[in-house]
Amino acid sequence: ELQLRATDRRAWRLRYAHGVEEPWRFAPRAGEDPAIPAALRGTLIHGVLERIRAADELSRLLDEAIAGVDEPPGAEELLEPGAPYRIALEAEIERVVTGERWQSYVAGSHHRELAFLVLAGGPPWRTGAIDLYRPGENPCIVDFKTHRIAPEGVEEVAAGYGVQARVYRDAVSTLVGAAPRVLLHFTHPDTVVEA
């Protein structure tokens, strides 16, 4: 909510004051597959990343993530095992979970989908969920971004997540007394930017 408010007051007012959903939540953007809106793609990738322990679980976890969502018309065929879209989606997730960065994220103590509610200091309170948090001497937050973008577009898109990074950093700082690093891991180009 805060991110949208900072970047687009009109869209924020429509969404949070009037309950109007943005078209991208249910309709594809230019260049996207018409049957797989960005929100569905993100839900599926996050559904796997929050539960996966080994790469050989990927197909099963993706099946479970797909079963847990309402698919728009035409999506079922694209998400069936062996379909080109499904193969590309699995390859993207596999690149992430077999990479060195992922291994560093999940080695040792870490928390996935870590929910938080910060009441300290009074209103406005903050609530949310962190995709992956590594506690310790050098705490680190990893937020997975599922945009279908080229590597050269990552910096520009990452710049729009400053408010979200600040909320996450403040929440963890309040809880543990140390400011964590915040990494934005873009899954499509498998690129990481520090926020």
Summarize the structure in short.
The protein is α+β, with helices and mostly antiparallel strands and 195 residues long.
* Total count of helical runs of at least 4 residues: 9
How much is the radius of gyration in Å? 17 Å
Largest sheet: 5 strands, mixed
Order of helices and strands: HHHHHHHEEEHHEE
Overall pLDDT: 90
Largest beta sheet: strand ordering: 1-2-3-4-5
Helix/strand/pairing class, anyone?
alpha+beta
- Terminal residue distance: 18 Å
Secondary structure elements and pairings:
Blueprint lengths: L1 H6 L1 H9 L20 H12 L8 H10 L7 H5 L4 H14 L2 H7 L4 E8 L7 E9 L5 E6 L8 H6 L2 H15 L4 E6 L4 E4 L1
Account of the 3D structure:
This protein has about 200 residues and is α+β, with helices and mostly antiparallel strands. The protein has 9 helices and 5 strands; from the N terminus they run αααααααβββααββ. It has helices at about 1-5, 10-15, 40-50, 60-65, 75-80, 85-95, 100-105, 155-160, 160-175; strands spanning about 110-120, 125-135, 140-145, 180-185, 190-195. The protein has a 5-stranded mixed β-sheet. A hairpin with a 7-residue loop joins strand 1 and strand 2. Helix 3 (about 40-50) packs across helix 4. The longest helix has 15 residues, at about 160-175. It is globular, with a radius of gyration of 17 Å.
